[in-house]
Amino acid sequence: MIGFLSGILKSIHGRQAIILVNGVGYSVALPTNANFMPGKEVELFIHTHVREDALTLFGFKDESSLDLFEKLISVSGVGPKSALAIISAGSAEVIKKAIEASNINFFTAISGIGKKGAQKIIIELKPKLSSGDADLSNLEGNSELNQALGSLGFTKTEILAILPDVDSVSDLSAQIKQALKLLRS
């Protein structure tokens, strides 16, 4: 198993990067929020994902992101591509905060994650990340806030950035007002 790579970033196309280590190029899937420059030295913590037909490397800047990725793929129904999309949506701390706050809107704003998937992630990971129980009242919410902000022209990235700071207990109109203030600041 490969657990760490240190080398030169030879090229990057979307999420796939080639890391040159002692003359061998490793293809590594990276989160989209990992800002690496071709030609520069990189150090990556690696998750080696083995299937019958493929061996795939997933790379992360720090151990906390790798640990979160591995927790995410331990949830039934969350594969490595979905977990990578979640990691791409924010830092490990932002994602942990969304799980601890039972913020279903954060996860449903990510392409490929529906309401049931978001609920499953929160229910299964909250006990692993904090000492409290999952706040199931927030899980009854839906992605109305995401849809409302999206219809106002905000991008998913902008919406995901402010969702953890929006009071999910408030009614929808109060959430929208609070979100708009955050988006304008």
From TrEMBL:
Gene Ontology process terms (BP): DNA recombination; DNA repair
Organism: Candidatus Collierbacteria bacterium RIFCSPHIGHO2_02_FULL_49_10
Localization of this protein: Cytoplasm
Domain of life where this protein originates: Bacteria
Name of the coding gene: ruvA
Protein name (record): Holliday junction branch migration complex subunit RuvA
HAMAP family per record: DNA_HJ_migration_RuvA
Annotated ranges, domain Helix-hairpin-helix DNA-binding motif class: 70-89, 105-124
Homology family: Belongs to the RuvA family.
Chief location: cytoplasm
Chain residue ranges for the region called Domain III: 143-185
GO terms under cellular component: cytoplasm; Holliday junction resolvase complex
Domain notes: Has three domains with a flexible linker between the domains II and III and assumes an 'L' shape. Domain III is highly mobile and contacts RuvB.
Biological function: The RuvA-RuvB-RuvC complex processes Holliday junction (HJ) DNA during genetic recombination and DNA repair, while the RuvA-RuvB complex plays an important role in the rescue of blocked DNA replication forks via replication fork reversal (RFR). RuvA specifically binds to HJ cruciform DNA, conferring on it an open structure. The RuvB hexamer acts as an ATP-dependent pump, pulling dsDNA into and through the RuvAB complex. HJ branch migration allows RuvC to scan DNA until it finds its consensus sequence, where it cleaves and resolves the cruciform DNA.
InterPro entries: DNA_helicase_Holl-junc_RuvA_I (IPR013849), Hlx-hairpin-Hlx_DNA-bd_motif (IPR003583), NA-bd_OB-fold (IPR012340), RuvA (IPR000085), RuvA_2-like (IPR010994)
UniProt-recorded Gene Ontology molecular function terms: ATP binding; four-way junction DNA binding; four-way junction helicase activity
Annotated keywords: ATP-binding, Cytoplasm, DNA damage, DNA recombination, DNA repair, DNA-binding, Helicase, Hydrolase, Nucleotide-binding
Subunit structure: Homotetramer. Forms an RuvA(8)-RuvB(12)-Holliday junction (HJ) complex. HJ DNA is sandwiched between 2 RuvA tetramers; dsDNA enters through RuvA and exits via RuvB. An RuvB hexamer assembles on each DNA strand where it exits the tetramer. Each RuvB hexamer is contacted by two RuvA subunits (via domain III) on 2 adjacent RuvB subunits; this complex drives branch migration. In the full resolvosome a probable DNA-RuvA(4)-RuvB(12)-RuvC(2) complex forms which resolves the HJ.
